[in-house]
Each structure stands twice: as structure tokens, then as C-alpha cells.
From TrEMBL:
<keyword id="KW-0732">Signal</keyword>
<dbReference type="InterPro" id="IPR036942">
    <property type="entry name" value="Beta-barrel_TonB_sf"/>
</dbReference>
<dbReference type="Pfam" id="PF07715">
    <property type="entry name" value="Plug"/>
</dbReference>
<feature type="domain" description="TonB-dependent receptor plug">
    <location>
        <begin position="134"/>
        <end position="214"/>
    </location>
</feature>
<keyword id="KW-0675">Receptor</keyword>
<dbReference type="InterPro" id="IPR000531">
    <property type="entry name" value="Beta-barrel_TonB"/>
</dbReference>
<dbReference type="InterPro" id="IPR037066">
    <property type="entry name" value="Plug_dom_sf"/>
</dbReference>
<dbReference type="Pfam" id="PF13715">
    <property type="entry name" value="CarbopepD_reg_2"/>
</dbReference>
<keyword id="KW-0472">Membrane</keyword>
<comment type="similarity">
    <text>Belongs to the TonB-dependent receptor family.</text>
</comment>
<dbReference type="InterPro" id="IPR012910">
    <property type="entry name" value="Plug_dom"/>
</dbReference>
<protein>
    <submittedName>
        <fullName>TonB-dependent receptor plug domain-containing protein</fullName>
    </submittedName>
</protein>
<dbReference type="InterPro" id="IPR008969">
    <property type="entry name" value="CarboxyPept-like_regulatory"/>
</dbReference>
<keyword id="KW-0998">Cell outer membrane</keyword>
<feature type="signal peptide">
    <location>
        <begin position="1"/>
        <end position="19"/>
    </location>
</feature>
<dbReference type="GO" id="GO:0009279">
    <property type="term" value="C:cell outer membrane"/>
</dbReference>
<keyword id="KW-0798">TonB box</keyword>
Length: 720
């Protein structure tokens, strides 16, 4: 009996030995360098081993049939081998380096980010309201970045030789149709939005994503806050108005409301009439914004609305009239924006949204009247799939609808109607491909069709990025961009084509230890620009798309917040070489809004003993071209250079209260933006002129900011 039992045990052990199989191989990287310490095992078992210093591994298993062999190693992508166990011998497995979202390459050509969590961030959200001279306007803060031009009589964004109409603004991915307040000629305007409602800003000076179109030069993307950190009430009191805001949170829902009133009567009383303006009624505006958010387990819903009412009544000097010319304006703007995002299984997400805007203007020019209204809407659906941390795909479609109607009534009570309606459809697809932590690319294409112009345009987009070291990287971008002609032309002629610009951008960026260095070389080629044969667009002008041009230059940005204790500063410089033949230009020339050199220096210093932050901002622009009919040539003269020194002081009263004081154009420099010449020469054959000097170029305000936190955790010291 004992002999029989021993025989059974012997046969069982022999069977186990004969049932074992050896799994072996070598683990290397893509360059055949051995990887030590990789974990190799069969899925669902304890059978496995680690690779040695030469990358070799070997272990035995009793498993049979089809199995999955898994290889894992920190900083590398997991590797899977599926097949019969008998084939898992003498394997050579190459592991690919995993893409690290924190330290890997990022696509940055042409784009500046403003957000605390962005790797490409060069501005923080608080910079929008603490930069001297910005006075809480995000556009004024962005004008301290390279690639922008300060056009002090306008106030909007002029980017790399492009007009203000070539930049589009989006909130949560949806178009804002009238992002700036209405104003008079040669009177600077401001953005309609409060920076406190937004978590981040992406400002692209060129080569932007295929998701966005109808912008020849740049796009500004504003993203509202997803989930506010705490309930709070904000009270601001300024020398020309005030504001009140409140955020309420209940569960996963929240509501933020912000309203403000502005009356420039105290300021306008100080403006001498010798600057070419007399105020009959001061500029006055009332505005409000609200953001509702509802966060689900896998979804986010947002509803944004903003309204603005403004009016002014002024008299402006005109060299062709003996007396001042009266100009009156009443503007009403109402904007709605809603977006919904849902996260599905398997890394799919779907984003949908809609925006609509109503804008009306009642304009009086002496005895003539202009009434116009524009109703515009935007519908958008986008899907995104993350296949892995190396590859994702997004695609979508959108539709824009615009209805524009204008009635002009002259002194004889004759009415002239100008209007148009357009439906513009667009589709886009784009993919981010990360080949390694050092190399990535973005491939995209966009197609758009306008029912008004009856044409279809296809726009390819490409961006590449290479990271040779830990802190620096190179980026390259190319793209074609199309834009429908603006309303001041389309209301007279609907037979035109879309204008075109092609962007070529080479970028280098270095970020390390509180220091950011960025430089960019670009070339922008214009085609199909609108031309007309009159001084201004009018019903009997001859229009064409025969215009063209170019813009090229170099941008430099440097920011340092570590080298000197308590000091944060940045410097930007732009060199711009541009010419274009458009509008009523008789030949290619540099337009008036495009100086060759622009520079900005922004400093912020914290004085601990005084509980204060003191800031200075200096902006410089070389002389701007203008046309002098007394001399030969076109646009051959230049104004004197633009200089602006601004000061900002913020005093921390306690953890919830800040008193601040700001002065723009501290030295009260007389910055001439252009010259107006008489239509006819005097008896000596000379065309007389007057300088155009915006009256609002110098500005100051005193403010008080008070945050009442419901949980007592508000800390304004952290903000400063």
C-alpha cells in the first residue's frame, strides 16, 4: 500500500514538472537600451518576474493555452502580449515612454494662457485686475503681452498687424458677437465682461485651433469658473461708479451675480475742450452679469447672461466744420450663453451649447440719425474621445446666424435701409498626437460655408512641438484662416468673398523656477482683402476682394517672480513689419494702427511693512504712420512715439478689505494717434491739420474692494 501511495505522488510531481513552461525575454526602450526592474507577469496569476540590469527576465508557469503577458514599468507605457503560453519565449519587448501631463511637451505656438493650472501660463487671472493701467479691463492687461498693439483711441485688441475686427472672443467655446462697449469715434472702449467671473483666459496671437474660425488674426477664449470655492459678496466703490457681486452655493449648484454702474461726469469735468471734445451729457452705463452652474456626477451645465446699457452725448472738433459736430449714442446689448458637457464611459465626452445676442444702437450725428440692430446666434456640438494619453480626437459642427438691419435718416427725413441675413455652417476635426514626452503634434481641418456669400472654404491647421530639455521647448504652427467681411461692407454688397490669412509661426518657450522666457517669429500672408473706391464704405462704392498684404515680426516675453524677493515683473517687446493694400488704399502701405516697435514693462512689488502692493507699468510704441497730403507718397509720415507710465497701489486693510488707487498716464503725456487734414487746401495750397488725441488717455480711480466670506476663509493677502 505504501508503495502504491509513493508511486501516485511520484507520478503527480512528474506531471507537474512536465506541465511547467518557461517564459523568457528581454525588456528595452525604443532605442534598445535595457530596462532594469520592469515587472513581467501573466494576467490573473502570481506567475511573474522582474528584469535584471541587462533587461533579461525568466520565470516558469503551469498555465496553459491563451494568456495575456503584461509588462509594466514606471515612466513607460504598459505593454500587453496575447497568445499561447508556448510562444512566450525569447521575447524582445520594447517599452514606449509614457506621456507625462505635468512635465511633457505642450503645444504653445501662438497661444498665451492665463490660469493657475496651466503649464503654458504667462499671466495669472489676478494679473487682469492688478496690472497698473489695466483698470480691471482684460483687454488692457493683454496689451502688455507681445504681439499686441496699444491703439489708445480705440481700446480693442489689435494683433500682429491685424485690425480689431480680425480678433474674435468666445465664452466657454461660444461666440460673443459684440464683446466691447459701444463708443464714439476716437474714444477708447472697454470689454463688457468682469474678470472675476472667469477661471482662465487663452489668448492666441495666431495659429489657433481648428475648432475656431472667422478670425484672421487671433481668438480670445474666456472660460467661466466651474465650481466657486466659497460663497462671497464683493463690493467695489470707484471714483466714477461702483459695483456689487454675490456668489451663492447650494449643493452642486451655484449662482454668481455681478452688476455695476459707471458715470464719467467727475472725470469728464476735468477734460479741457482743447482736446477736441465737449461733453453735453456724460458717458453713463449700467451693466450686469450672471452665471448659473449645475454640476452632476458626469456632467456640467452653465448658463451665462450679460446686459449693458450705455449712452453719451458729445461734441467733437472737426477741421472741416466751423463748429463742433454733435454725436449722440444709445446702446443696448443683451447676451445669453449656455453650455452642457457630459462625460461618457470609455473616455468619450460631448459638449453642446448655444449663444444669442441682441444689439441695438441709436446714433445721432447733427441732424442725421442711424438706427441699427443686429441679432446673432451660435449653435455648437463637439465630441471628444481620449483613446490614450498619447492620442485624442475631437470633432464637431456649428452654425452661426446673423440678421443685420440699419436705417439711415438724413436731415431731409429721407430714409435708407441696409440689411443682410447670413447663415454660416462650419465643421471641424482635430487630433492631438503625443509621440513621446519630447514630441507632439496637432492636426486639424475646418470647413465653412456661408449662405450669403454662397462659398465654401477649407482650412488646414498643423502644430508641432519638440522638447529638447526639461524646461524649454520649440513649437511650430501653420494654418489657413478665413473671415466673412464686416457688417459695414456687407450691408452694401453681398457679392464679396471671405478674406484670407495664412499663418507661419516658430516659437521657443522656457519655464523654470518662476521664470518664463518666450520668443516667437511669425509671418502672416493676407489675400482677398476687401477694397472700395470711396473714403468710407457707402451704397454706391465699388467693392472687390483684390486686396492683399503681409505681417511679419518677432515677439519676446520675459517674466521673473523669483530673482528679487517680493518683486514680480514682466517685459515684452514686439517688432512688426507689415503692409497691406485694402479699403481705399491706393497702394500697399503700413496702416495707421501698426507701429513698428512696441514694448511693455510691468512691475509689482509687495511692501510687507506697509501691507501694500505697489506697481508701475510702462508702455512704448514707436511712431505710427499717417498720410500727409502736403507731401508726396502715401502713409509716409509718422507721429511721435507713444509713451504711457501708469501707477497702481493696493493697501490690505485686513484679510477681507483692499483699498486701491490707480493712475493711467501718470505723466499726462500728450499721445497723438493720428492727424485729420482738411478736405480742401487753403489759399496757399496747404492742407491744414489737427492732431487726434484721445481725451480718455489719462485716467485715475480710487476703489475699495471688500469680500464678505460666509465661511470666514477669504484671504486677500493670498490674492495680492
Amino acid at each position: 500500500m505504501k508503495t502504491f501511495i509513493k508511486l501516485v505522488i511520484l507520478l503527480f510531481c512528474a506531471g507537474a514538472v512536465f506541465g511547467q513552461q518557461t517564459i523568457s525575454g528581454k525588456i528595452t526602450d525604443t532605442k534598445n537600451n535595457p530596462i532594469e526592474g520592469a515587472n513581467i507577469y501573466l494576467e490573473g496569476t502570481y506567475d511573474g518576474a522582474s528584469s535584471d540590469k541587462d533587461g533579461n527576465f525568466s520565470f516558469e508557469t503551469t498555465e496553459e493555452g491563451t494568456q495575456i503577458l503584461i509588462v509594466s514599468m514606471l515612466s513607460y507605457e504598459p505593454h500587453y502580449e496575447a497568445g499561447d503560453v508556448s510562444y512566450f519565449q525569447n521575447l524582445h519587448i520594447k517599452l514606449m515612454e509614457s506621456v507625462n501631463s505635468l512635465t511633457g511637451v505642450t503645444l504653445t505656438a501662438g497661444t498665451f494662457e492665463a490660469g493657475n493650472n496651466s503649464k503654458a501660463s504667462v499671466l495669472k487671472p489676478l494679473d487682469i485686475v492688478t496690472t497698473a493701467g489695466a483698470t480691471g479691463d482684460f483687454v488692457a492687461a493683454l496689451q502688455t503681452l507681445p504681439g499686441t498693439t496699444t491703439v489708445n483711441e480705440d481700446g480693442r485688441l489689435f494683433v500682429r498687424g491685424g485690425t480689431a475686427g480680425e480678433t474674435q472672443v468666445f465664452i466657454d467655446g461660444l461666440r460673443v458677437f459684440q464683446p466691447f462697449n459701444a463708443t464714439a469715434n476716437n474714444m477708447p472702449t472697454r470689454g463688457r465682461f468682469s474678470p472675476f467671473l472667469f477661471k482662465g483666459i487663452s489668448f492666441s496671437t495666431g495659429g489657433y485651433s481648428a475648432e475656431y474660425g472667422q478670425a484672421l488674426s487671433s481668438v480670445l477664449l474666456l472660460n467661466t469658473t466651474d465650481v466657486p470655492l466659497q460663497e462671497q459678496t464683493e463690493i467695489s466703490i470707484m471714483s466714477v461708479g461702483g459695483g456689487l457681486g454675490h456668489t451663492k452655493i447650494w449643493g452642486d449648484q451655484s449662482l454668481s451675480i455681478n452688476t455695476s454702474y459707471m458715470n464719467l461726469a467727475p472725470y469728464e469735468a476735468l477734460i479741457p475742450s482743447t482736446q477736441g471734445v465737449r461733453w453735453k451729457s456724460p458717458y453713463e452705463s449700467i451693466s450686469g452679469e450672471a452665471v448659473f452652474r449645475s454640476k452632476g456626477e458626469k456632467s456640467m451645465f452653465k448658463l451665462y447672461t450679460g446686459f449693458n446699457h450705455s449712452n453719451l452725448d458729445i461734441e467733437q472738433e472737426d477741421i472741416n466744420f466751423d463748429d463742433f459736430v454733435r454725436f449722440g449714442l444709445k446702446n443696448n446689448n443683451l447676451y445669453f450663453n449656455s453650455s452642457y458637457k457630459y462625460y461618457f464611459e470609455n473616455d468619450w465626452s460631448l459638449t453642446s451649447g448655444a449663444s444669442i445676442a441682441w444689439d441695438t444702437n441709436k446714433i445721432g450725428i447733427e441732424d442725421d440719425k442711424v438706427d441699427n440692430k443686429e441679432t446673432s446666434s451660435h449653435l455648437k456640438v463637439k465630441a471628444r474621445k481620449n483613446f490614450s494619453n498619447r492620442y485624442d480626437l475631437s470633432f464637431g459642427t456649428e452654425y452661426f446666424h446673423t440678421n443685420y438691419d440699419e436705417t439711415y435718416t438724413d436731415v431731409n427725413i429721407d430714409e435708407f435701409d441696409n440689411n443682410y441675413t447670413d447663415g454660416l455652417w462650419a465643421g471641424f476635426a482635430e487630433s492631438d498626437i503625443y509621440l513621446s514626452n519630447k514630441f507632439a503634434m496637432k492636426l486639424g481641418v475646418r470647413g465653412a460655408h456661408s449662405s450669403l456669400l454662397d462659398e465654401f472654404k477649407l482650412s488646414p491647421r498643423l502644430s508641432l512641438a519638440y522638447k529638447p530639455g526639461e524646461s524649454g521647448q520649440f513649437s511650430l504652427a501653420y494654418g489657413d484662416f478665413y473671415q466673412r467681411p464686416l457688417s459695414d461692407v456687407l450691408k452694401f454688397d453681398e457679392s464679396l468673398s471671405m478674406e484670407k490669412a495664412s499663418h507661419y509661426i516658430l516659437n521657443y518657450q522656457y519655464i523654470n523656477n518662476g521664470k518664463t522666457f518666450r520668443t516667437e517669429v511669425y509671418h502672416k500672408a493676407y489675400g482677398q482683402l476687401v477694397k472700395y473706391d470711396s473714403e468710407m464704405p457707402q451704397f454706391d462704392s465699388a467693392y472687390s476682394n483684390s486686396g492683399d498684404g503681409y505681417a511679419q515680426g518677432v515677439d519676446v516675453f520675459w517674466r521673473d517672480s523669483k530673482s528679487i524677493e517680493n518683486l514680480d515683473y514682466w517685459f515684452s517687446y514686439s517688432y512688426l513689419d507689415t503692409e497691406r493694400d485694402y479699403q481705399n488704399f491706393p497702394e500697399r502701405a503700413t496702416p495707421n494702427f501698426a507701429p513698428k516697435h512696441n514694448a511693455s514693462l510691468v512691475t509689482k512689488y509687495w511692501v510687507d511693512k506697509l501691507r501694500s502692493q505697489v506697481g508701475l507699468s510702462y508702455s512704448y510704441g514707436s511712431g505710427r504712420p499717417y498720410h500727409n497730403p502736403n507731401n508726396p507718397g502715401f502713409m509716409q509720415e509718422k507721429t511721435k512715439s507713444y509713451n504711457n507710465l501708469s501707477f497702481n497701489w493696493a493697501y490690505l486693510i485686513d484679510q477681507q478689505k483692499i483699498l486701491y488707487f490707480s493712475v493711467s498716464n501718470l505723466l499726462s503725456l500728450n499721445n497723438v494717434s493720428n492727424y485729420q487734414y482738411a478736405n480742401t487746401p487753403d489759399v496757399g495750397g496747404v492742407y491744414n491739420r489737427r492732431a487726434i488725441t484721445p481725451p480718455a488717455d489719462s485716467f485715475f480711480f480710487v476703489g475699495f474692494f471688500w469680500t464678505i466670506s460666509t465661511d470666514g476663509k477669504s484671504n486677500q493677502l493670498d490674492n495680492l
